[in-house]
Amino acid sequence: MLTWYRIRYLKGLNQSHVTTLAPASVFHFTKLIILIPIPVVHDFYGLENTMRSFLYGFMMGRYGPDHLGVGLVILSFVLSICYAVFGYLPFLFISYFTFALTLFRMLSRNLKKRRAENDIFIRYWWPVKVRCQKFFKRVKEFFTHKRFKCPKCKTKLRVPRGVGKLRITCTKCDEKIFKKS
Ligand SMILES: [Zn+2]
What we know:
Elements: E1 2-10, E2 31-39, H1 44-59, H2 67-86, H3 89-107, H4 111-142, E3 145-149, E4 156-160, E5 165-169, E6 176-180
Helix pairs in contact: 2-3
Zinc ion is lined by residues 150, 152-153, 155, 170, 172-173, 175.
């Protein structure tokens, strides 16, 4: 799969404008032939399979990505942006550290410990996520629906906007309310 190409690299040869005190014999060895390996892909799918099987073997028995991993990568990204904006160096260091930690966790063979870490992360992250989802849903609904509380039982009610005056019946206590939507 590797094809070797010969590349002639000429250095300092016939450069009359360069004045030097070195004897002419020095330039005898400056004509170099450098061999550089350039991979030539003859069989793309074969290469893809090779890479895939290598990766599969490499990741065998290792932990891989999880919720905490994704969270850490996002944190690392946010911190690097913070460094770019504020120019505060510790942001960059913490960003690197976070990324290194993510890699370490992905390549770790101690699955039990990594799973325990992920469980702790999910336990604290899940309520925050649900609250965020509720908040964004409410922001979206603000433009299409109007919310208010039933004066009697404090149930939260929701009606579409821009329909005019409405007589609303509370879903819980059947209280009749007149409201402008
Ligand atoms: Zn009610």
